Amino acid sequence: MPLDCAPAVLLQSHTHTHTHTRTQVHDAVGGSSAVPKGSVFPLFDRLGALHLAVAEELRLLVVRQRLYEQMEEARAQVRVRHSAAPPLGATLPQLPSQALTTPFPGVPCLCPIP
After folding, report:
1. pTM across the whole model
2. Average predicted confidence (pLDDT) for the chain
3. How far apart are CA 31 and CA 106, in angstroms?
4. How far apart are CA 78 and CA 92, in angstroms?
5. CB-hemisphere CA count at 13 Å for 23?
6. How far is CA 45 from the centre of its chain?
């Protein structure tokens, strides 16, 4: 699928940051029953922001996937219509010879004169 790789790189970066932050939380809390909230809350805040960013990126990927599938379907329909259509000149009616004359000298006539 020809989607650019930026979303994949972004998700990989978020995953790495998430893993690193979880390690920091584990190191800060360890086996303690009480931890200063000033050292732990910012880490949980960062984890929450990462979770929201990953959820939003995944939502955008789903939207892009659906758009891509719809565009491919439309492109296939255009190809089918184009290949089934007769050549352009074959669909034009032949004008009668009187249609090429006009009562006004020097002015071409494109419609038949009754």
Report:
1. 0.52
2. 75
3. 100
4. 21
5. 6
6. 31
